[in-house]
Amino acid sequence: MKFHFILSVALLLSASACKKEALTPEPPLIQRKYKLPEIDLSNWKVTLPISNSSGRPVEVEPPEILNYATNEQLLPFMYNDSTDAALVFYTYPESSTANSSYSRTELREQMVPGSNNTNWTFDQGGRMRGTLAVEDISSDSDGTPHRTIIMQIHGRLTNEQRDLIGEDDNNAPPILKIYWNNGRVRVKTKVLKDLNASDTEILHTDAWGDDEGRNFSTVVGHEKFTLEVIASAGKLEVTLNDDETFVYDDVHMQKWSVFENYFKAGNYLATTDDGAYATVKYYDLEVTHD
């Protein structure tokens, strides 16, 4: 009898617990929204900080770059952050291009996908606009954050110009470099050292020097910001957050019209320190030409 009584009580308690459990609503599932970045890579190739079999930095062009999300070679350096709708560029010092000691995970504009041979002049014009953030970056031995170049306009010699001055490649100086520099956006351009130099002399890289550089007043830190670059005949404009604009419309820009150009965007880390790294996120990026 005692056993039956204990069993009955146990069954009643179990039934009561089940009833209580049934009346208690399940906690709602956490709804996470995943969104991919809307960046068209059809007219971009990317350079990585790792070497190919020839000892040169790996480059991935269209159409292969369009499959970056499943490309095992690209995945460590260029990938989606689908919780932030961003395209991430990660880099560290390792392999560098022939004309630099720094490594990069950086896009290079290709007006004709898969070819570097079609470019544009300032007279033809070009516009690049992107929203980005430098999410993380290493510091030097003094605790100062390293710098990284996030946008560029790079010059290029035509084949005729290359042969005229006896160069073995089509490289010309970058007329524009935009840095993330300790939480600020810093702009540097090229200036012609000798304004009386001939049209042939100005084709040489060493005919051009760096200007003093300018910092925008806004401190962007590691937050999102928007940059717009507009090149036109004899003029260059760089705007931060649709608010503050640097305008370059001097004789140096007029002289620059001799070169072809292409846009670059990404993460070009300006250090060779051991253990250095940088992570840059792009939320949107577009290029247009008149």
**How many strands in all?**
16
Order of helices and strands: HEEEEEEEHEEEEEEEHEE
Distance between the termini: 96 Å
Oligomeric composition of the shown chains: single chain
By helix and strand content, what is the structural category?
mainly beta
What percentage of residues falls in helices of 4 or more residues? 10-25%
Beta-strand content bin: 35-45%
Task: Return Rg in Å.
Answer: 27 Å
**Sheet bearing the most strands, described?**
9 strands, antiparallel
**Tally the helices: what do you get?**
3
Low-confidence segments, ≥5 residues, pLDDT <50? 1-24
Q: Mean pLDDT, nearest integer?
A: 91
Q: Rough shape?
A: globular
List keywords for this structure.
290 residues, mainly beta, 9-stranded antiparallel sheet, 7-stranded antiparallel sheet, 3 helices, 16 strands, globular
What this model shows, in words?
There is one protein chain. With 290 residues, the protein is mainly beta. 11% of the residues lie in helices and 41% in strands. The chain is built from three helices and 16 strands. It has helices spanning 2-23, 159-164, 251-255, and strands at 44-51, 57-60, 78-81, 86-91, 104-109, 126-137, 148-156, 171-181, 184-192, 208-210, 214-219, 225-232, 235-240, 244-248, 260-269, 278-288. Strands 1, 2, 5, 7, 8, 9, 10, 11 and 15 form a nine-stranded antiparallel sheet that branches. The chain is globular, with a radius of gyration of 27 Å.
